[in-house]
Design goal:
Length: 510
């Protein structure tokens, strides 16, 4: 009797309609085009017969703590129109465990001759709803899986900046969470085009200080984002006795200086008073206020750590294998940019004309060309130029590697930021040099929507970007102009690099 009842319940929820999530008597249509059956999702499940092949099977990851209450509302909606077992709350299950289990199940069923598993694996797409930190988490996990055919990723904006979603046409504003809005978003996911983007490996090494600690300090000393620096384990091949080595990866940008200091102040305030940060507009207003209080608009008198980058470090770039070039950066902020979106959709590099590119020995800023754009800013007044038509920062260089060498006496700390996640970096005060090096390492697949801002070297005239724009406002300043066998660049993080600690609160991730 119990078995028959269980089967009846299973059949009920396997139909095309289920009760609405809000408890109303109305029913909600199950979207079969995206539906993945339980036997593929759950371990130890028997193969189900008669299941149709979905046109666009998706796995959905949602940071329920992002976007105020929007994350939680979105979770409820997605679970009501899809199989609830294909929609995951990142506060409950980590994506690395979910995807390892999913691909284990797929391979198992494929070996048993299940054609549906093969089709789902071929067509699978991932949706991640959250801020830039959450999106970067998923990109890191997928990179770590090292799949022969990794699933492309679509990003739903639930954060404050939302640079990753904006770069690929998914917008900057927080989306609707009702059934029609989610259905419309999934239809866009189904029609989206795949686009490769460069991944960037970042490594920092310093001699263990005689006094004090040198671990990165996240806002309010809480565990920092997984794709920012993490110290490698003693058993890691990159560990070197007597030194502390940190590494990680990013996909949008690395920045250092005053902008990272403002971001650090914002994240600290948000973690101290989360109840005040429930609205995207309020968040952006608070960010603007902190830009003033942190000295971003005035000379660095009270904030010595925000002094010019040239006073903190020597900077070198590499464009050709084995050829390091010194780069002078008399700026308070430097941005190493991979995508055309920074600080909520601004483009520091801009769109230089063909004439400007030729005269400066630059190339168009593609997201998959193995080069990163290096931009500098004097202060926030200089940064305001980005709001002007065709405005941009000081274009310093393009490179496939960039190296910062911090020497004694520059400062006792600096502020850094990766893909929206800031931290305060202590610097040893002894005679040893601290080295931070960024290098190109592989690619991941994103899903590009109709209004995609990013440009691919394989499709330079698509999607909605304009070729050959003349420079408008510029800084009126001239910019200054793969090493073999590098063990330090052998891999873009190990699994531990992109795995959050067991006690990590996802609410602290954007």
């Amino acid at each position: 009797m119990a078995r028959e009842m269980k089967q009846s319940i299973h059949n009920l929820f396997s139909k095309d309609q289920v009760p609405a999530a809000d408890g109303n008597s109305e029913t909600v249509e199950i979207l079969k085009d995206y539906y993945i059956p339980d036997y593929i999702l759950l371990p130890e499940s028997e193969t189900e017969q008669g299941c149709s092949v979905p046109e666009c099977p998706v796995i959905v990851f949602i940071n329920s703590k992002s976007g105020g209450q929007l994350g939680g509302e979105l979770l409820v909606t997605c679970r009501s129109i899809l199989n609830r077992n294909q929609v995951f709350d990142l506060g409950e299950k980590t994506p690395d465990k979910v995807l390892h289990q999913l691909y284990f199940n797929l391979e198992k069923h494929k070996k048993n001759g299940d054609n549906l598993s093969a089709e789902i694996q071929r067509k699978l797409r991932i949706v991640v709803a959250g801020g830039d930190g959450t999106a970067g988490w998923l990109l890191g996990v997928v990179s770590d899986l090292k799949l022969a055919q990794p699933p492309p990723i679509a990003t739903m904006p639930l954060g404050t900046g939302n640079n990753l979603p904006f770069s690929f046409g998914w917008g900057k504003k927080n989306p609707g969470t009702n059934h029609q809005s989610v259905k419309a978003f999934l239809e866009q996911v189904k029609d989206a085009k795949e686009m490769k983007i460069d991944s960037w490996h970042i490594l920092m090494r310093m001699r263990a200080p005689k006094e004090g600690a040198c671990d990165p300090i996240a806002p309010l000393d809480l565990p920092h984002s997984l794709h920012a620096f993490h110290r490698v384990s003693p058993s890691d091949e990159m560990n070197e006795e007597g030194y502390h080595t940190f590494r990680g990866g990013f996909w949008n940008y690395f920045s250092m200086g005053m902008d990272a200091q403002v971001s650090y102040a914002f994240h600290s305030e948000r973690k101290l008073h989360p109840e005040k940060f429930k609205n995207q507009l309020v968040n952006q207003t608070t960010y603007a206020k902190l830009s003033c209080t942190q000295g971003w608009f005035c000379a660095s008198l009270m904030h010595p750590s925000s002094r010019n980058i040239a006073q903190l470090a020597k900077v070198k770039i590499m464009k050709k294998p084995g050829e390091w070039i010194d780069l002078h950066i008399p700026r308070r902020s430097i941005v190493c940019l991979n995508l055309p979106s920074f600080s909520g959709g601004l483009n520091p590099w801009g769109k230089p004309s063909k004439q400007k590119l030729h005269s400066r020995d630059l190339t168009p800023p593609y997201v998959d060309d193995g080069f990163i754009e290096v931009v500098g800013f004097r202060d926030a007044w200089h940064g305001l130029i980005l709001f002007a038509p065709k405005g941009h920062g000081t274009r310093l260089a393009q490179a496939n590697r960039i190296r910062f060498e911090f020497n004694k006496g520059g400062a006792d700390h600096t502020f850094m930021r990766i893909d929206g996640e800031p931290w305060k970096q202590p610097l040893p005060m002894d005679d040893e040099t601290v080295v931070v090096e960024i290098s190109h390492f592989g690619q991941v697949s994103m899903l590009a929507n109709t209004h995609c801002q990013s440009r691919s070297i394989n499709a330079p005239y698509s999607p909605s970007s304009t070729e050959d724009e003349d420079d408008g406002y510029n800084s009126n300043e001239d910019a200054l102009e793969e090493e073999e066998g590098s063990e330090e660049r052998k891999k873009l993080g190990a699994a531990d690099t992109f795995r959050l600690p067991e006690d990590f609160d996802v609410a602290h991730l954007s």
